[in-house]
Amino acid sequence: MNRQATQHNPNRRIRGGSGLLRLFVTYLALALVDAFAVYLMYVFAADGVIELAVAVGVVTIGVNIINLRQGLYALRWIAPALSLMVLMVVYPIVYTVYVSFTNFGDGNLLTKQQVIRILAQETYLPEGGNVYAWAIYANPAGDYALWLTDRNDDDRYYFATLGGFEAVASIEPGADLPEEYQGYRLLGRKDALQAARKAEDLVFGSAAQPIGIAGRREAGEFAQRLVYQPETDAILDMQSASLYRAVYEYGRDETTGEPHKTGQFVNGQGKTLRTGFIAGIGTQNFSSFIERDDIRGPLLRIFLWTISFSLASVFSTFALGLFFALIMQNQRIPMRKVFRTLLIIPWAIPGLISVAVWRGMLNENLGVISNIIRAFGLEPPPFFIDPGWAKLGILLVNLWLGYPYFMLVCSGALAAIPTDMYEAAEVDGAGWWRKFRDLTLPLLLVAVGPLLIASFTFNFNNFTIIEAYDEGGPPMKEAGNLPAGHTDILISYAFRLAFGSGRGSDFGLASAITIVIFAMVACVTLLQYRLTKGWEETSENV
Amino acid sequence: MSSPVRKRKRYSLGQNVQLALQVIILVAAVVFALFPIVWVASAALNPAQSMVTQSIIPLLPEVRVVYAKQPGTLLQIAAPNGTRVERSAELVLLVEVDGKEKELRAIKNGYVENIRVSVGESYAEGDALYDISSSYFINFDTLLNTPRKPFLRWMFNSCVIASLSAIIIVLITAFSAYSFSRFRFYGRRSLLVLILLVQVFPNLLALVAIYLMLQQIGNHIPFLGLNTAGGLMLVYIGGGMGINIWLMKGFFDSVPRDIDESALVDGASHWQVYWYLILPLVRPVLIVVGILSFVGTYNEFVLARVMLRDKDTWTLMVGLWQYISANFAQDWGVFGAGAIIGALPSLAIYLMLQDQIVGGLTQGAVKG
Predict the structure, then answer these.
(1) A517 and A453 in one domain?
(2) Which residue is closest to A410 within chain B, CA to CA?
(3) pLDDT by residue (tens digit) across B320-340?
(4) Which of A168, A197, A224 marks a domain boundary?
(5) How large is the ipTM?
(6) Which of residues 11-50 of B touch A (CB under 8 A)?
(7) Rounded CA gap, B249 and B296, in Å?
(8) pLDDT given at position B7
(9) Average pLDDT in chain A
(10) CB of A425 within 8 A of CB of A433?
């Protein structure tokens, strides 16, 4: 196969004459990618999502450099993977760090530009402005126009096109509206409804006399109510003439002790506009870990449970896996392969499904395990109501899910321990316990140690089991309005803060907790590398 | 004469007792491992549907005629679809369903409620009737035919998303692995370490950021936004880079470099070396990476649940979650059916490839 391929190669050479063509194709492709990237950056920036525009920009520049510099040929092969990683892994991490220092969440979901744009749509009727009843017309080109009847004086009519406004004098007072006027036809009831929906955002009339539709019956010289003034960075309410200043400061007011209304437009009386924007609030999310009563207690408990859950899971799965692996070492066991296959089945089933099955089996009233316990005349434990039992249930389920992995790993590692070491130990008169403690275990831990740590970090973020077991329940009372349960681990707590349905989202706080997880995972990983000298391994190559 | 033939070792009584104990422990372990699976399989096959009435061996409810008002031949049932036939009409059967007496009157399309009676047959007391709602596969039937919960659609979505993601991950990471394995360039080592480090953070952690990013992207590129298979695949592919590049690179390294060096000397381009020489040689690792990615993506639940909002875009796991999070005890049988079908792909893959996967695992363990 190889030889054939090697011989085949020279005939397939595409080098030489086609070099120019290739260069051209490269440039063309690159130009297309760049054009698309520039478009994306433009629309993202226009939405005020500068960070995403920057991320796209960085990736694009990187791709360009890599493809244009001959010296970076090797990187061209890696460019797709790198681009994807930067966009889908690195950028989200950086962005999470950024969000953790903001008030991002319900009530503050949009950037300032987006909020200003939304608020600008609000209109009001200035004093002295005329109000009209309206009917909608359209010309064959699809432009709309409005026939206006003065509300204060039924006999005065006006006709407003897009860009024109004139008084109509030619019809009798009280007469029906003309079917056709200046090339515009009056629309029937059904068409009018559709047209009105489209015309709602249009401004009719001349520059001096702007007319907008305000309701089903009203049109008038409506004006924009909330006008953003860049020079003062404030929004002026034209109706009440009060000025809403954008507030960026965070922390508490020094004189009153009140927290600042960060990310809101606030006027002199302390009133805010209905929509807030995303603003930096410094380390407020982090300090709320300690300062807020509804976070401090739950967070500490969740933190401790996360660590004990991970440790207990690693220890139990490893112990059981090792135990089975030791037994399986005996070559005389009949059908060893069959046993192994059957024993790894829990590992091969999607986690969500297995946990759900256990959830059904442990059900206090109807579950089979509860029924079995009841058959012995005992009261089945409240696996989902009592925090302690719920935790025990989760550990049991995780043991079932996790032991096959360590069984497999330990089997491999045990097989690698040379048998003559055992023989030597036996000659020295060591019993099985001494052999296990002083020989098997140390040698095994060298090989399996890093995997134990990896398993710890995996369980540290094992969202699926927590969610599928009981969605973090039973709920913690001291968390108040915030979602927190006794079996929640950090990641599921953060998830609930961000996406917890019905209780509002606090992306900022959730991200801050995520940062804590980042830090923990990073520490553990560093420890892992210390132990395995993984840094050196990376330099090893053929 | 006797000694050379006797190769078989004699075992002491202690060793035999030990063996027996070990086998007993293993059998107990197998029971522990398989009980939940057997139990859910039994639930899936049990027409009783809810958790209350489940028994380990699924039993079809027994339906017997206890009294037929008109013993003998069942008369013609002439009623059109859905007509209720009153007591006075041709057929009144008193039947016993699981010990409870039930009088059947309504006739639908040849069925008397759920019990099928054949026109022209004769029935007498004690006759067994066939209850169409109590087939062993009624849960599967419900699962596949509930329009509100389009299971087949979810299954299809899952398969498409998982296989496309796996293919793209293999394509892209193989390129990178080739470069890391064959080229020597400035920053190569640090880049490798960086990739591994970044990969330590599961993308689950940056859920919020990814959610918002997809939302933003979706405003301008609709097929990559929230609530689309494209967007979710983008997340999966992005998250599947690091670890798989490492896995592949390790295998690429094990292919001797002289093979491609001689080809390069002969004037082959890197592309040709990659395509015609290396790829056929590393096919095993391509398959392993592809399959692991497939299974991982297929089983993923959290990201999919957050990113996909519409029922029609859901993946299998998100759909199954609907059975779990509400009315779990009532839907237990149907969930069981879904669980069995849903677990099949990954179960089949693991069991078929257990030697390769175990090999990879233990190799990594021993090497570490």
Answers:
(1) yes
(2) B362
(3) 998 888 878 778 888 999 999
(4) A224
(5) 0.80
(6) 11, 18-19, 22-23, 25-26, 29-30, 32-34, 36-37, 39-40, 43, 50
(7) 20
(8) 57
(9) 83
(10) no
